[in-house]
Amino acid sequence: MDIDAVYAAFLEKEKLFNAALARCEAEQTEGRTGLAAWREADKLNKELQVIARALISNIEQAIAELPQGIS
Q: Superkingdom of this entry's organism (predicted)?
C-alpha cells in the first residue's frame, strides 16, 4: 500500500474511533456506563496503532529511497 492509501485508511479509522468515544461520552452523560462504545473505541484504537505503524514504515521506506544529497 502506498503512503496516501495508508493515510486515508488511518483517517477513516480515526473517524470511527472518535465516533465511538463520542457515543461512550454521551452514554455516560446519560448515566449509563458506555461500556459497549468504550470496547469498540478500544478495538478501533488498537487497529489505529497497527495502521500508524504501517504508515511510519512506509514513510521511512520512502525516505530511504530518496536520492542522496536531497535535504
A: Bacteria
